[in-house]
């Protein structure tokens, strides 16, 4: 029987995501794909597979699954408690899971978007070159209990290897560039924008996240008469009531609300992981600084496979300690086999 | 940069994007310029440029900032802009003329009377005008396959309604501000719903997945409501297509 994951329970935001569909804006289709593309690459590195392998994205709520066939898995992005057959296992670690195991992920304790990666990837039928669900475009749908997800052919790789997660789960500063519409806002509004604390509002989805300013809202002189123009993920759009939205992977491709700034792509994982209530700020950078940050981010993404290291475990953390052969050759019990 | 500065105007749009704007309001010359310049930018195939898009009055280039620096790319774009009067440039080749059978009014277009009144026309005169107006796909955007079409005759410079219609069905033809829009999926909208087509605008399982392209021209001839089942049964919604010279 081929390998699969059976969805036993889930929240409303469980979707299959990979790198999305770049290059289709002229057809009105935004790129989509994992909101936290760093988390997508981290999971792939842990499981020794290509960086855009399709995984499961969970928004705030956890989910539970049954494994059909033996597999390796890893959880990245938001901090979600992972248990396999009742045993709690660490995130950012590759684990071996036996056929029939029950895999449970708790709600996000930090961050927003959690990712469950399986070796071989989620093997649903690609549409327009991607497995990413893009509900706003009518491509696929969120998953529901009872759904069965086929998996790709098993990929060999180590287990009990880990990556150190970087610290992007608690809000913080998003670096932004001015956009071609920034001049629609008076200069003092730019300054105030960069000095204001924003709270991630509960209103948010894969198209955009609403940010509630700690002070007054923002207004542009042009008001609502702006000609519809191109939109890219990261754009900070100010709607009628003055609260900005950070537009996310599934955003529309054009829009008529003025945009005061655009978040650097390398800071979008931090935006995606800001849970409702998290505090965010925006800091303007120059184009040169933005290019340097993009290069550093790409170097970091490319280095992920080399950063995967064996997990050192203390004996009391090993649930199946009795199953280990402790007195044999040079094995001390503190080493990895 | 101010909104009264001269056009065309080159700006960056994020770390990996460049926008050329031909105006800050919709005009036919600005839209034609965007269509023509996008075709020229696509043909130029500048290294590092990964995607080109034309919108109502602008062209967007997405590029890889590792391969192309913005300063160098914007200089290349500037030279191409200077090479021609893009506002007077001929429209690109490869465009098509579509004839899309359309059922106006009644339950297929519940706001026809209201839209006609806004334009100062009777419903019959409105249909006579709209069904013979050859319009251009000014851009595809917002949602997959969604065309903005125009320009319609000046009497159709009518505002959007202040409220929202909760839901219009896929294939609905709507009008405002001298433009038609056609919705590929059921959508809430502020535009007025005047007719139905059975045009399959977005078919993700087919190649190409999007039926219309920016620059195509379209006629929406009026057909009787009795034809609606036949249009729905046809995979192209009864539409025909021919190459434009």
Task: Please state the average pLDDT score of chain B.
Answer: 94
How many helical stretches of chain A? 4
Tally of helical segments of chain B: 5
Gyration radius over CA of chain B: 19 Å
Structural class of chain A: alpha+beta
Count of DSSP strands of chain B:
15
Following the backbone from N to C, one meets helices and strands of chain A in this order, namely EEHEEEEEEEEEHEEEEEEEHEHE
The structure class of chain B reads alpha+beta
Supply Rg of chain A: 21 Å
CATH superfamily of the largest domain in chain B: Cyclophilin-like
Give the proportion of residues in helices of chain A.
10-25%
Task: Classify the helix fraction of chain B into a percent range.
Answer: 10-25%
What is the third-level CATH name, the topology of the largest domain in chain B? Cyclophilin
The overall average pLDDT of chain A, rounded, is: 91
N-to-C span of chain A:
30 Å
Can you tell me the number of structural domains of chain A? Answer: 2
Low-confidence stretches of chain A: 323-337
Write up what this structure looks like.
Chain A contains 4 helices and 20 strands. Chain A is α+β, with helices and mostly antiparallel strands and 337 residues long. In chain A, the strands form 4 sheets. In chain A, strands 1, 2, 3, 4, 5, 6, 7, 8 and 9 form a 9-stranded antiparallel sheet that branches. Chain A has helices spanning 37-46, 187-195, 268-273, 287-307, and strands at residues 4-10, 14-17, 55-59, 63-68, 71-84, 87-89, 95-97, 102-118, 148-150, 161-162, 172-177, 198-204, 208-213, 229-230, 235-238, 244-247, 254-255, 259-263, 279-284, 309-310. Chain A folds into 2 domains: 4-168, no CATH class; 172-285, Cyclophilin, CATH 2.40.100.10. Chain B has 2 domains: 9-88, Gyrase A, domain 2; 96-243, Cyclophilin (Beta Barrel), CATH 2.40.100. Helices cover 21% and strands 27% of the residues of chain B. Chain B contains 5 helices and 15 strands. In chain B, the strands form 3 sheets. Chain B has a 9-stranded mixed sheet with strand order 6-13-10-11-8-7-14-5-15. In chain B, strands 1-2-4-3 form a 4-stranded antiparallel sheet. A two-stranded antiparallel ribbon of chain B has the order 9-12. The chains are: A alpha+beta (337), B alpha+beta (245). Chains A and B meet through strand 14, strand 17 and helix 4 of A and strand 1, strand 2, strand 3 and strand 4 of B.
């Amino acid at each position: 029987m081929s390998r699969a994951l059976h969805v036993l329970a889930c929240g409303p935001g469980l979707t299959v995501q990979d790198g999305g569909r770049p290059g289709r804006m002229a057809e009105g289709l935004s790129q989509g794909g994992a909101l936290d593309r760093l988390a997508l690459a981290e999971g792939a590195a842990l499981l020794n597979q290509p960086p855009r392998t399709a995984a499961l994205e969970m928004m705030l709520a956890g989910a539970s699954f049954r494994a059909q066939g033996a597999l390796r898995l890893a959880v990245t992005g938001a901090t979600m408690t992972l248990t396999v057959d009742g045993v709690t296992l660490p995130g950012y670690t590759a684990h071996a899971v036996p056929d029939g195991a029950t895999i449970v992920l708790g709600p996000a304790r930090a961050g927003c978007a959690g990712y469950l990666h399986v070796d071989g990837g989620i093997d649903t039928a690609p549409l327009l070159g991607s497995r990413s669900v893009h509900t706003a475009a009518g491509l696929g749908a969120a998953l529901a209990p009872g759904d069965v997800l086929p998996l790709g052919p098993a990929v060999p790789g180590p287990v009990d290897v880990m990556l150190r997660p970087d610290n992007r789960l608690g809000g913080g500063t998003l670096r932004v560039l001015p956009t071609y519409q920034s001049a629609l806002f008076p200069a003092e509004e730019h300054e105030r924008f960069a000095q204001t604390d924003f709270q991630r509002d509960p209103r948010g989805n894969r198209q955009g996240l609403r940010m509630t300013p700690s002070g007054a809202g923002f207004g542009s002189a042009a008001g609502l008469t702006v000609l519809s123009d191109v939109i890219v993920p990261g754009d900070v759009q100010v709607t009628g009531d003055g609260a900005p939205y950070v537009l996310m992977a599934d955003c529309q491709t054009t829009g008529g609300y003025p945009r005061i700034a655009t978040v650097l792509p390398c800071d979008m994982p931090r935006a995606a992981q800001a849970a409702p209530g998290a505090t965010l700020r925006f800091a303007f950078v120059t184009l040169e600084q933005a290019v340097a940050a993009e290069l550093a981010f790409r170097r970091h993404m490319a280095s992920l496979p080399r950063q995967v290291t064996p997990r050192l475990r203390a004996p009391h953390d090993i649930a199946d300690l009795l199953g280990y052969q402790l007195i044999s050759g040079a094995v001390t019990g503190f080493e990895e086999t | 940069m101010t909104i009264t500065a001269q056009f065309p105007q080159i700006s960056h749009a994020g770390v990996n994007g460049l926008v050329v704007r031909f105006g800050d309001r919709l005009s036919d010359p600005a839209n034609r310029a965007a269509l023509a310049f996008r075709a020229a930018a696509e043909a130029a195939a500048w290294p590092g440029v990964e995607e080109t898009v034309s919108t109502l009055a602008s062209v967007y280039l997405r590029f890889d900032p590792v391969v192309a620096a913005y300063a160098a790319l914007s200089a290349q774009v500037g030279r191409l802009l200077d090479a021609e009067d893009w506002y007077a440039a001929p429209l690109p080749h490869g465009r098509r003329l579509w004839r899309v059978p359309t059922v106006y009014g009644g339950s297929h277009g519940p706001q026809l009377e209201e839209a006609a009144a806004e334009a100062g026309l009777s419903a019959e005169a409105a249909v006579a005008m709209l069904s013979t107006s050859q319009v251009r796909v000014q851009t595809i955007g917002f949602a997959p396959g969604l065309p903005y079409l125009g320009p319609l005759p000046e009497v159709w410079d009518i505002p959007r309604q202040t409220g929202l219609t909760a839901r219009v069905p896929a294939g609905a033809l709507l009008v405002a501000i001298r433009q038609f829009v056609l919705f590929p999926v059921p959508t809430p909208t502020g535009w007025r719903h005047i007719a139905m087509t059975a045009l399959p605008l977005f078919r993700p399982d087919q190649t190409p997945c999007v039926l219309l392209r920016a620059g195509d021209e379209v006629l929406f001839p009026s057909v009787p409501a009795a034809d609606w089942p036949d249009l729905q049964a046809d995979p192209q919604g009864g539409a025909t297509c021919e190459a434009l010279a």
